[in-house]
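Please check this protein record:
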Amino acid sequence: MQRKSHQGLSTEKRTRPRASRSQPGPGHRRSRELSGFASAMDTTTASTVPIPKTDPSRWSLDQPPENPTLLFFFGSEAADVAAASRSVYRALLAQQEQCHPHLDVMCFDVYEQRGTLDKILQKYDVRAVPTVLGFPARAEQPLGRVEGAYPARVGALAEQITSGTLLMESVSVQERIRRMIEKNQVLLFMKGTPDRPRCGFSQQIVQLLLEELELPRSRLATFDVLSDEAIRQGLKEYSQWPTFPQLYIRGELIGGLDVCREMTRSGELAELLAATLETEH
């Protein structure tokens, strides 16, 4: 019998979008915290490109878009955030004007339009600026996400949602999830990684498993749901549970942080983990 976490969206403290951590590499952009938002610092000089602001009421949370659509969340409050946002916006313009004339682009300023954007930010868990979400035509959920100043990735995302690549890939998402769960005796779907958790619930459940229950780190498999939007959305359907983290043991959904805490207090989780590790020998 599946055990499901009692933690819900309403119990999680919602904060302003947090900093996007760009990884070192070609065209590396430094990141830093700024007023609670993730800012991708563009080391190149960005020309002043005015970014139009879309009225948030134009985006329906209930009706999927008729055309492939990119939602662009940017910031104009500080120079470094604005520069990173402009570099991404130039990539959006290039895609729309030169490659995909039927691609819709909606731009939202998370600072100036904050009051009217809350429901959109919460539903799609937007915590960084700039962030681009990609919706194929008639898709209810984003099937791709780019966080940080990565214009090339934005171009690839536009190509995918207009060509239907991501939509076709989503057919196999449930199979990918099933295989991951079957392959790993103890599997935690979380936000971030054990070394760098990206939400309080994920950080606490990792501490519970590794420190309080003394589960060997090598026996805990994890998957960062923020790294793969298709898996993140598909897992909600697979488990019939909308929040993260989600802990699976021997193919069974145990639950989230609240359930794991309860099972730790009763001793049940420690017994289950011990029995699971014994079967691996």
Q: What stands out?
A: Residues 79-99 form the longest helix (21 residues).
